[in-house]
Write a sequence for this structure.
């Protein structure tokens, strides 16, 4: 069932509003910050859960020429929307998938010697060429300190013996999170040392959303923001330079006055300390609301906004329901809308209250919501 | 983009196998345990993330006659697969949605006086009837201690003045989690007191997956298991009476030997204490792998299974990548398959390692996987 497109606003438990103009504005802001470097866009995981098709369409029409995805199937979906874009597939190349890259004009980011051998062999045997008649394109991902994925110096040396079989268009690496600035500095030194051995003339890319704002950081030729495009703060602890992109709302199903001592939720964790006015809203972990938002007892977790007031989540987050304490809000009734994420509660606030990263929170939203694309 | 159906196994980061025969077997087990009571099936949130269409089809063909969903749109999807089934919509009735219930022959579970008034008014004004010519059906949800949703005794008294406008087919309540057995006992007393005022002749339903196995618990006329159908353990702390239903697998992208002192992941949290053999697998929080699986330092979180050996997650879980320490496993190479959930690591184990509920873990899976339906 792909219920998403069939959900009308009136029957939806949650409504996710995505502001495509804000995504484009964020991309333009990042492009300005980046100066000479080209600004691409990371649209993996369904554009961080916000919808690959509309996001790619908006950015492509705004002039974005380069997209990054994790998987070949995401690359194919991007190609359908952006026929002339450059599309890099970051997660390496699975065995037996080389033809897909040629068929859809996707660029594999080769991460290991076996991948280089695999793709090189395919290029040699198939003799396939780009539409312009050149060798098939590829990129190299260098390992500079995260030890997750990429070529070490000896891998690069080894792999370079096969690199005449394809056209190396980009040299890249993945940096640590911005708070590890000393680590990033070392990563850049290593990256610089590796690329200058043989690939100094090849365009380079290292900067994710956060790294774009690190002042000492070289941006090279191409930057690849993701989270910042979608309104997440790329510089934690400092004011967010990005526009908010998402609003998540839900409906009040029921209003209930509780007496002191009454408990709320399947886990019976929350106890009314005095008379409280509780609302149950039509949202739960089935909508991407983490159960950890209420893990701390008696409301020290997250909040929703009802009539401009912060109302804490209470009890346990169910699959479809969660209660909030609206005692300090105004008159509330069935059908009223509350804000879970939006102008007041940013995606970073929401994630922090749940004890998870903003990336994870954003990507988990909206599988069951009514999703609409309009200006916030 | 609905990428799910387009993802071939060779290019997928994760493969989710759902055993529909096991779901049916679990339903039959539950039906036996329930004796005289009818056994329905809860299929909300896309059948706990496993696919509403195939799950409803399998259960309907096996003889399941009653389905529970949270939202009207889920009810419509269920109706398309199960033309003659009884379908209850649990999350109350949104304003202005009453006609949907009549159009698709769905039964609203009315949770508050405003909902009763709303539905009663619709029935009176529209004069709509069931295909058999009777009043439109409805159910009442009673509030017995969770304080999330349902009618208190005075609401039921009030609402009963309108209940001649529709046909009350079911009286239900939602019980606390099974570890709160004393709470459940009190809930049942209250439920019993409320239903006997006027609705003693109406079929009743109280039991979720866990409550079915509470020995002192009356099951009334209709039980509504969810999590247990999908292989989750309904009796935490005791052997799981259900068959496993899901397997989640991923591919090894890269194998890397680390030297002592080298760190892994964007957050640099994990440090190799000696020479280690690390694999990066093509799965991350974009696939429903919670970042909290590696929150504890140096591998005290979750595990994957590689060649029969438990290999801890290390570093941080990225959107698309996570590293595991395969030093104690056999020879591993690019393209090898590891088990994230399956015969060895149950959905309950996986969730416990991440510090979340099995319900939340299950529902979060598989938005980006290749999903296949076959026997485990």
């Amino acid at each position: 069932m792909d219920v998403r497109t069939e959900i009308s606003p009136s029957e939806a438990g949650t409504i996710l509003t995505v502001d495509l103009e804000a995504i484009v504005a964020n991309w333009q802001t990042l492009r300005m910050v980046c100066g000479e470097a080209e600004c691409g866009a990371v649209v993996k995981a369904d554009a961080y859960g916000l919808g690959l098709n509309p996001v790619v369409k908006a950015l492509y029409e705004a002039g974005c020429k380069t997209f990054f995805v994790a998987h070949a199937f995401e690359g194919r979906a991007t190609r359908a929307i952006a026929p002339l874009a450059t599309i890099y597939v970051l997660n390496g190349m699975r065995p037996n998938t080389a033809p897909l890259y040629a068929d859809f004009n996707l660029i594999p980011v080769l991460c290991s010697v076996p991948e280089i051998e695999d793709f090189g062999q395919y290029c040699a045997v198939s003799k396939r060429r780009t539409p312009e008649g050149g060798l098939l394109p590829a990129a190299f991902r260098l390992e500079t300190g995260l030890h997750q994925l990429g070529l070490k110096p000896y891998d690069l040396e080894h792999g370079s013996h096969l690199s005449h079989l394809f056209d190396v268009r980009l040299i890249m690496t993945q940096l640590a999170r911005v708070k590890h600035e000393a680590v990033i500095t070392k990563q850049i030194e290593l990256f610089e040392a590796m690329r200058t051995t043989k690939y100094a003339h090849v365009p380079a890319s290292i900067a994710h959303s956060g790294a774009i704002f690190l002042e000492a950081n070289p941006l090279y030729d191409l930057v690849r923001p993701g989270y910042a495009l979608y309104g997440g703060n790329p510089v934690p602890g400092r004011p967010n330079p990005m526009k908010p992109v998402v609003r998540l709302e839900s409906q009040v199903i029921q209003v209930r006055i509780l007496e002191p001592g009454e408990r709320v939720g399947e886990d019976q964790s929350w106890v009314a300390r005095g008379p409280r006015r509780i609302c149950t809203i039509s949202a739960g972990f089935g909508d991407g609301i983490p159960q950890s938002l209420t893990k701390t007892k008696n409301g020290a977790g997250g909040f929703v906004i009802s009539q401009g007031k912060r109302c804490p989540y209470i009890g346990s987050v169910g699959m479809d329901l969660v209660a909030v304490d609206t005692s300090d809000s105004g008159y509330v009734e069935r059908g009223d809308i509350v804000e879970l994420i939006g102008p007041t509660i940013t995606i970073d606030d929401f994630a922090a209250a749940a004890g998870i990263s903003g990336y994870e929170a954003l990507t988990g939203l909206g599988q069951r919501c009514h999703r609409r694309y309009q200006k916030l």
In short: The longest helix of chain A spans residues 181-198. The radius of gyration of chain A is 24 Å.
